[in-house]
Amino acid sequence: MIRRLGELWGTSFPAFWLLLAACVYFAIMAARLTVIDVRHHLLPNRIVFPSYAIAGVLLLGAAIAAGTSDGGASFLGVPYLGIVAGGAVLWVFYFILRLVYPPGMGFGDVKLAGVLGLYLGYLGWAHVFVGTFAAFLFGGLWGLAVLVSRRGTLKSSIPFGPFMLAGAAAAMLVLPA
């Protein structure tokens, strides 16, 4: 994401500012949701649902303002559809996980997955896959640490939202755009 911001700084100031606003919103949303999910095991609709509109408008606006039809914001050759497709694919993936094993995944995680898919889809499919993998890796390592430290058992409930957010953030920061 940082590389994409750098590219936009030199080519399109409106796209740069829209993408920067999307990044700032992500950071604020992630911080709020992490605190709430850790404390209450809940990802509130009053934060997640508006995030679809805010992230969607900012990311689509940045893609349109940049005026490019290549890169991550493309799906099946249609410019900017990658943003929406990323959100839809992640939402469906997490929804299937919820259907297969309901106690293992809350519906708040499913709803959050769509928002994260918008951000990762803006950057490309590699980001969608790496962000999702990183979420499960971080969550699994945390679960292992909880078991090893004897602070929980295999039946312990662990909020997954913070790991989803961390995985998405890691993919946005580490992978080149």
From TrEMBL:
Keywords: Membrane, Transmembrane, Transmembrane helix. Residues 26-144 form the Prepilin type IV endopeptidase peptidase domain. GO terms for biological process: signal peptide processing. It comes from the Bacteria. The chain crosses the membrane at residues 15-35, 47-66, 78-101, 122-145, 157-175. One of its GO terms (molecular function) is aspartic-type endopeptidase activity. It holds the Pfam family Peptidase_A24. GO terms for cellular component: plasma membrane. Belongs to the peptidase A24 family. This is Prepilin peptidase. It comes from Arthrobacter terricola. The lineage of its organism: Bacteria, Bacillati, Actinomycetota, Actinomycetes, Micrococcales.
